[in-house]
Structures are given as C-alpha cells and as structure tokens.
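Running low. Any example?
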Amino acid sequence: MTALVPAPVLTSAEENYLKAVFALAQPRIGTNALADRVQTKASSATDMLQRLAEKGLVDYERYKGVALTDAGRVAAAAVVRRHRLWEVFLAETLGFGWNEVHDLAEELEHVQSPELIRRLDRFLGTPTHDPHGDPIPQADGSWPAAAGILLDQLPPGTPFTVVGAADRTDELLNYLTQVGAVPQSSWTLVEVLPFDGTRVLQDDDRRLHLSALAAKNIWVQAHPQGSGAPFTNETH
C-alpha cells in the first residue's frame, strides 16, 4: 500500500496517458492499443511514452510495449482519485446525473492541488465509490472493494438497490436514467425470462424489463430478505 503522495508536475496530456495505461490493466500495453485509447497516432503515443520514461513513470521498450513503474502507478491512481472525487461532488453536491459527470470530471481531474483534494475528500465524507460504483483510490493508497455484485448474478425474488454501472457508455447511462434505474433506486428482481435472459424488475408501482446485456453491466446491492436496507459485505 503506497500513499498517494504528490507526483512530479505533469501536463494534462501526460496524466491522460498514465491514466490510459492504468485503465487498460495489462502487464504491458502495445503502443497501438494505447494510441487507440487516447485517440491519437501511434507515433504521437511513442513520443509521449519516451517523455514519461525519462520521468521514471513508465517502462517503455520499442516493440515491447509499456508498463507503469511504481511511481507511474501512484501518479495514475492519483488522477483516478481526483476524477472520481469530482464525479461524486458533481452528482451529490451540484445535482448532475451520473450520465453527466464524466466529461466534466475529465477537466477537473487535472487541477493539481493536494490541499484542494484533501478538503474535497473531507467535504464529501471520504467516499469510497463514485456515482458509477467504481472504487475511489484512498489517500493511503488502498482500494475499496467492489460496490456490490452485477444484476445478472442475482436470483429471482431478490430485492436490491442500484449502486453503479460497469458499462459507463452514454447509451446505457442515458437509458437507465430514462427508465429510473439509477443509483439508490430500489427494485425487486421478479423473474428472468428463459428465452433471452431479460430481467423483469418491480418497484412500488411499475415493472421494468431489462435486457441480459444491461443486467451484466449494473452493479447492485442485495437486501437481506425482509429488510429495506441494502446488504453489503464491504469493509471500509
């Protein structure tokens, strides 16, 4: 566990590359895959990786791809932490929907003020997950457990609360917002249709049919039977 101490001052572009390598979550990332992730040319990605290697943040070898160094992982996690804290602030304090916060947080994550982030964290009550259910790296370098389980893992008859989305594409988030399957909404999984795995959900006054694909991408917390409170085995 390594505390998220301030890294060398980086440009927004450098931070985006570190975050992209971090997000791809493989031992070594090919230059072409990274270029696709950040939507640039492979030659531009190579130039940036050489610059980050000079700063000791990545281990880069031509034709062998790139991996984060320990310092690079700390720097990337710090960017992820800032991004997800800003998402919580935008959703909980300013009232933005979970389908609206990502692009705004992409801009705010590059504000490199450790004191601002410390105060933001305290103001928000040291949250462990962002509005999409993604864990927020903590200041001491620890990572919280998953927000819950995926909806497709629940048996019929289980009441639950939506806590996030594994797929954060605009299409899914906008759809779930439209039908009301948003964080903190409570439902019961009534049945799973045998033909195509559609999940039939029920809240107090309506039913909702969700595709099997959607169910694979919604984080939920099951309620103990007979209880209105969500159940979780997380330790924070």
